[in-house]
Design brief:
The structure is a homodimer.
Chain A: H1 3-10, H2 14-23, E1 30-33, E2 36-38, H3 41-55, H4 61-72, H5 78-88, H6 99-112, H7 123-137, H8 147-166, H9 171-204
Antiparallel strand pairs in A: 1-2
Helix pairs in contact in A: 4-5, 5-9, 6-7
Chain A binds a DNA duplex (30 and 30 nucleotides) through helix 2.
Protein name (chains A, B): MerR family transcriptional regulator
InterPro entries (chains A, B): DNA-bd_dom_put_sf, MerR-type_HTH_dom, MerR_fam
Keywords (chains A, B): DNA-binding
DNA sequence: GACGAATGGATAGCGGTACTCTCCGCTATC
DNA sequence: GATAGCGGAGAGTACCGCTATCCATTCGTC
């Protein structure tokens, strides 16, 4: 297919597709003439992935490029590849780090028996410390006490994630599934947590019959 | 205190504070002269809240304004106020809605015995449908099967959230705690989920001893 | 009470991001 | 052979969150 049909099938405007091509988010099509190129289903698939990362995953174009580069890495173990990808989909955040919050994180790791060595300087750790710093800055220094119950709930969720991913065939599918599952999972979790809050709020607060 | 000290204590540059004042994110200080205003701890607290919402909660300035407006509402039941605030901190997202994904959401509600009536057109429902649409568009139409295990894990988390909030005194503290807890909780959950993934990935994939 | 720094207030400008537009010569299709 | 679409490249746009500049006034302190 040519770019017009790629656009129609994906819902992405042609100029945007051209932009993604320029930015290296989509591989160039196969040239059949100096100004005719052919795109296949793989391009369509990749394009939809890019949109999902941008729209739902809220990744910047640069971050998407990193993710795709990690996905396309050929010569690494699965574990390394997963690590690469995870770094790429975990934006660190910009705020100041309160040393007390960093200590909270380390204490949490110790409590959970994490080998901290290879984790403490990752984006994920930074994310966590940033969030706890923000909590402290607005006077919620007891927020850290939620880490353990959160982990308890997230173990269930992570297990479901792993089971879901395990149904996939090739290692490429696994890595891509991890990207999609992590980012779309984030969005789903955000929404469902809010639903759970609303449900509880409705149950707990029977304040005033009606108005 | 005056603006300079407010800046020093919060770490926010003076021009930014002025900007927030203009945008209505901070109430004006009490004027003691035509060009001197006095700010108190309440301003400082509000400023830090704004920064947390912007930095960690990733809210736009407009969304922050909505949240603050909801927080400052005086004449509503707690339940209504919580609902208002929840809408304000739940950005809908922009993608197309796949009708099949919408059906997935409704089926989920039915399964969970939600009274859908007052929920189906909320931002949160839209968030969920957007995420599931994205999943479908990249070929993960079985992603919806994760909804139930996610809810199971999130019930634990939501319970912890409620317990945490319940320690607070005034209803104002409750509502503010809900904002902070929801947004910072989102960030924390994101991070901890990734840690859980990494942990599981390390456990499951003992592929190759070392390199 | 003089003087430099800081203040409140208003308007304009800046830097980054994600597109979007325009133009070109060429090509598929009718 | 007309017309629509194409690949490619550079410039332009819209929005967002600040940041810079200016002004008259006032604070701090000497």
């Amino acid at each position: 297919m040519r770019v017009g049909e790629l656009s129609k099938r994906s819902g992405v405007p042609v100029p945007t597709i051209k932009y993604y091509l320029r930015e290296g988010l989509l591989p160039a099509g196969v040239l059949t003439s100096p100004n005719q190129a052919h795109y296949d289903d793989e391009h369509l698939r990749r394009l939809r992935l890019v949109r999902a990362l941008v729209d739902v995953g809220d990744l910047s174009i640069a971050a998407v490029r990193d993710v795709l580069a990690a996905l396309d890495t050929r010569d690494d173990t699965l574990h390394k590849k997963l690590g690469l990808v995870q770094e790429a989909i975990s934006q660190p955040g910009t705020g100041e780090l309160d040393p007390l919050a960093v200590e909270d994180v380390l204490a949490f790791f110790r409590r959970q028996g994490e080998e901290c060595a290879d984790v403490t300087d990752s984006n994920v750790t930074h994310m966590l410390a940033t969030a706890l710093s923000a909590a402290r800055s607005v006077g919620h220094d007891h927020f850290r006490e939620l880490l353990d119950p959160y982990l308890e709930g997230l173990k269930i969720i992570a297990q479901a994630d792993v089971d879901y991913i395990a149904t996939r065939g090739s290692t490429d599918d696994i890595v891509e599934g991890m990207v999609v599952g992590t980012l779309i999972g984030d969005a789903v979790i955000k929404a469902v947590r809010r639903l759970a809050h609303a449900q509880v709020s409705r149950k707990v607060l029977s304040d005033g019959p009606e108005d």
